[in-house]
Amino acid sequence: MNVIERIDHWAAVAPETIAHISGDQTLTYGELSKRSDALAVYLTERFGDDRSPIGVLGHREPEMLIAFLGTAKSGRPYVPIDTLLPRPRVEKILAISRAAMLLSAEEVAQLSRRKIRGRRKFLERNAPFYILFTSGSTGEPKGVIITLACLEHFISWMLAEQQFAERAEVFLNQAPFSFDLSVMDLYCSLATGGTLFSVNRDLIENPKQLYRALANSGVTTWISTPSFARMCLVEQKFTEAMLPRARRFLFCGETLAPQTAAELLGRFPRAQVWNMYGPTEATVATTSIRVDDSILQKYSALPVGRAMPGTQILVVDQNCHELPANERGGIIIAGPNVSPGYIGRPDLTARAFFERRGQRAYKTGDLARFRDGLLFFEGRVDEQIKLSGYRIELGDVEANLRMLPAVRDAVVIPVIKNDTAQSLAACVLLDARNETSDFELAHSLRTQLSDRLPTYMLPRKFVFLDMFPMTANGKVDRTALARSL
Ligand code: AMP
Known about the structure:
Blueprint: H1 3-13, E1 18-22, E2 25-28, H2 29-47, E3 54-58, H3 62-73, E4 78-82, H4 87-97, E5 101-104, H5 105-111, E6 128-134, E7 142-147, H6 148-162, E8 170-173, H7 181-191, E9 195-198, H8 201-205, H9 207-215, E10 221-224, H10 226-233, E11 248-251, H11 258-267, E12 272-277, E13 287-290, H12 293-298, E14 306-307, E15 312-316, E16 329-334, E17 341-342, H13 346-352, E18 353-356, E19 359-371, E20 374-380, E21 384-387, E22 390-393, H14 394-402, E23 407-417, E24 420-430, H15 438-450, E25 461-465, H16 478-484
Parallel strand pairs: 1-9, 3-4, 3-5, 8-9, 10-11, 11-12, 24-25
Antiparallel strand pairs: 1-2, 6-7, 7-17, 12-13, 13-14, 15-16, 16-19, 18-19, 19-20, 21-22, 23-24
Helix pairs in contact: 1-2, 2-3, 3-5
């Protein structure tokens, strides 16, 4: 059974089981299956043999799930887009992916209620299943194509390793559906007849309501970025008493600090904590390790673990030659979970992807070393960072800043505290300086930038300079700029 057939299986044997809870909305497996079928028929009627992607715009509404499955059942890839994105960025994504249409949650609600009969398409394993857009260094987002085969490889590994109990788990969904961490909770839950419990933006911004919702959630498997768990740990009541059924905390997407893992193990003595690693280009996660007391005692920086079966992780030098253990180099991932590439960008695809011994391989840009057979993540070769779990190319923010009328040049620097990026600072050269105060200027630039970029990519601080410090070989000296902030 492929992942869609598994979901329909639960709809057949347990139609009343709740598939998704988001705020006060719920969706059963029966409804999910029936309504995604109706949407698939609509898309097939409307677009015939055209297999162009379908954009899906929303936040955590149950209609998002209906749209993803309905689009997949019609044989087309879906492109999840969060309502957090400003309209011009949405337009860019639609243009790059050549989407046939953009479906909003409201439209899905209507279209999926149509009473029609029709045959759905056969899902091809090597056809694109979803396309996820991430930050691109030149200011254009890039769309990672994931096939059904990639997704199946990832999900089979997760189910084998974690042994989720069928029809008994409640999975936390914290990541927006436009971020690939959500693929882990969404499909692990749906494939095992579980319930996906989404915390939406309003809840995340209102801690009191968030903790109340969590206490009523019955969450058994917690999947989030480490940043989100750290935020929850600030609340002293965030313990086993609040989440008595929690048995697993699965983390991916950014560095898991040993303190976070240790604190969770202390507060949830019956739960396991796992650290997982991987880029969107290799379908959510490629390595994993259970972090227990022995790992915490042995290592001051946590390993990200071992590769999933069937997939290889190589640590290589600049000439792509494999390095021995304990030596630091770039991470290459090769296996069935690696994406065919970026949609509409053969140039970017050729730079990062290649074939290795008959397998698709991806140069991650991550640095790491093997020690005791375990992989240890050690940063990036480029200007890509993680801020509260979000992947940001500093060049993306810079390119968008440079497009503003008053800006001649801009360099964006992460503000680091305790080895973690806390916010962004923009160092800006203006075309002409008038009487406006720095405060007003910063406010104006930030407002203009917010029409182009989502809030999480906006610099908190703006510094206006006459020139940038330069290194000996004529590049902007980012280290000096960071020191001067
Ligand atoms: P994304 O494509 O948004 O999932 O981001 C992928 C990037 O996040 C990777 O290339 C790493 O730089 C970083 N990352 C993912 N998982 C981890 C982890 N467990 N520890 C440290 N960094 C991670």
